Amino acid sequence: MRGVKGFFEGSELISFNEFRAYIHALKLDQHAGVQGIGLVRVISDAEKSQHTERIRKQGFSDYRIKPEGQRERYAPIVRMEPRSDTNLKALGFDTLTVPAAWAAMQQATDTGNVAITSHLTLIQDAGKPGVSGFVMYLPIYRNGVKLDTLVARRAAVVGWVDVPFRMSDLINGLRDKIDSDIDLEIHDGTPLSEQTLMYRSDEVHPEAKLAKGMLQTSRQIEVGGKQWTLLMNATPVFVARMSPRDYPTMVALAGVALTLALSWLAWLLARGRESAQAHYQQLFDQTGDGILILATDDRFIDANTAALQILGYTRAELLTLRLSNILANPWAPRLDINVDDLITGADDHEEWTPVRKDGTIFPAEVSARRLNNEGSFVILRDITKRKQAESQLRLHAHVFESSREGILITDARNDIVSVNRAFTEISGYLPEEVIGKNPRMLASGKRDKSFDEAMWRDILNLGHWQGEVISRRKNGDIFPQWLSVSLVRDHDGQIVQHIGILTDVSERKAAEEHIQFLSNFDPLTRLPNRDLLRDRTQQVLAGAKRKHGSVALLHINLDRFKIINESLGPNIGDQLLKELAERLVGHLRLDDTLCRQSGDEFILVLPSTDAEGAAHTTEKMLGIIAQPFTLDGQRLTVTASVGIAEFPQDGDNFEQLTQSASAALHRAKQSGRNTFQFFTRQMQEQARNVLQIENELRRALDQNEFLLHYQPQVDAKTAQIIGVEALIRWQHPQNGLVSPGIFIPIAEECGLIVEIGAWVLHTAIQQAADWQTAGLPIVPVAVNLSVVQFRQETLYSTVAQALRNSKLDPAMLELEMTEGIAIENTERTVKLLDQFHALGVVLSIDDFGTGYSSLGYLKRFRIDKLKIDQSFVRDLGHDPDDAAIVTAIIGMAKGLGFKTIAEGVETREQLDFLREKQCDEIQGYLFSKPVPAEAFAKLLRNGGVFVEQVY
User: Which helix (H) or strand (E) covers residue 250, if one does?
Assistant: First the structure.
């Protein structure tokens, strides 16, 4: 072939006669299987007519390129010698129309070497069933061109030397070099099937031969870049010929040689049957598989070099052992009686686990066979690496199929050859719907050409690319995916595969968009949140500063919205907020910004608006809010309070303006609600004082500046002390004792009340325990719970732990809560009060009568006492309304089984009224103001009775 190649590369114009004379000199009839030698030329579509005319003028009047049809380029066979009738069929045939031929021609072009096709039917044998062949190709390049790169070789190729082979003729021509007592079968690659069959020496299927006990083996050889599998079977004649009585050991060697099948080359080297035994001995000594010859009693009588190396023994050492000595469980017990239990008269193919001399075990593939009555042989192959490779392949296959990312693999031409399960789940395409197709079928059509060009430029230059692309599922849905593409090259640098890994990022993109929305908007009303409002306000303020303009900021809060949530449920409350937001937005200017800050609070920023404009807008907003709502068939009317701050006089940044507006809102609430107030300097000073107190409260916790005073609770009839309330005081280092009425609301607002309340609880409980240890007749100590404390999930465990630490009887602790706390979350309240009741703690409702009018909760709660607020006690004897309220509370409590205690009792007249109405307990300055712990301990020591105040 290289001579023909040189013949054409040395001359631009070679006539048919010159080519015919050259081929005749090669004496092709002496080369088995060769059907001829031809020449293939590359012809462009523009050259087709001129090319056809030129060939016809050289004596081939019916020459044409076939099959018919217009293509970008052609590769017709333009010479084929010898010029037989069958070879003339090939003249003009376009080899590019045969994928197997084109693949081999491309391989030959890229490597510069001979390449052969996979098995096919030659043009010369068209119409003949079952006749297999192949074609060899060698490239012809344009003269004077450097061929040092792949691109250069592909650009320089002008044709190929074409040598077709008929497989049956090839093997028949080699029969004098192959033992005729061996049946031969040749396949194109693996796995073996009727589709890969290229040659079979007889009509009997190899599985049938194997079933009859004939020895069989296979090997792979590489021919022109293709792998052929040679499958050989021994015939009965071969076995009989190789089994003379004087050579029992040689029989084993002959069978081993056949089974191991270093095969074709060995047979070709054997020049006749008379030299076969010498070659078998050579194969026995040199083969890479271990061969063990055994006597009938399981003793070794011979082993080849490979077996000794595999097992780690010397020949002398091994011949002292039996087969069972080199096998690990479970194989050894099977061989303890007789080797014939394992090695029968037929072939035995198994996997064993032998043991080397050093004690290591390894997997082995074993073929075993009895020779005759005198022994058996075993072929042993160490398959450790194969097992590892199989394990690795299984792992890779598992990873491939289990991956949550879609994976597709394409060949060098970018046609899909494999996809995993995740690919199907993501794209909707089954494997059979995409195999053999280009991944472009997934394209959405939304990428421009420059994007694809840049992507493939990176893939080819860098070997990889990754990025986000828009793709289309089988059902037509468009979706975003993250795509990673990598190249796989062979040892010559040629592209053999592309691997694409794709991840559906639809959910992630949606989540990102949702997160982006949540970071800037309120999910309920879809209004801007505080962060977005801050950004917009800063832009508005920057413009106002440049133009010396004005800006108004309104803090809007619905009046008594909490009652709607608690009475009608949070769903109604949410609907109300959504409809309210829609109403307000519908009456705003384009540059106004309305924000839902939290709950029922809104902030409205009005650019280019002074005080008069702000007041006008606020009046309109209040009217819009007051219009009735109809929700789930219920008609609701709400009002709002508004605080207004102006730029620049009330603040020159967002934070200052919102603080000023919040202060103004607080004053609007105090003014009776459903109104608005502007911020004043006095309010600003008050806000500054609040902030200072908050900072000092944090220091007070660290510096232990808090202390407890204790106010007695006495029996209304006997004036005996029956309880005590723990009241916090703040010993300020500069201001002295600070009233709780000043700092408790601030502590609740800033969240410090949780730490302060926990301190009060532990301190009061421990103080009662200390009094008990001192031998005093202790009474229950009452501790107030704030609304913030009551919301803590850890409240019960905190109380229980404090009681356990102090070892105080739970009955000696009374927890006081307001009505507002009690009905804030009814189901949770019922559960929590049941827990405290089971613990043995006394429970009371503080400031009863000042909260919500709904009293249905009282019959559900496990409480012990109602505490009458001092605002009703203060005017007893003077205000008939207060007298009526107190009388009603006492009567209702007795009807429900509760005790009553009146606080703020300061006069004998108040006491007499309460005793007359059968109030159970009294607390107030009439008996004692709150006193330090030491003073209250003294009261207990003195008997704890206030005789003078009662009698």
Answer: helix 248-260
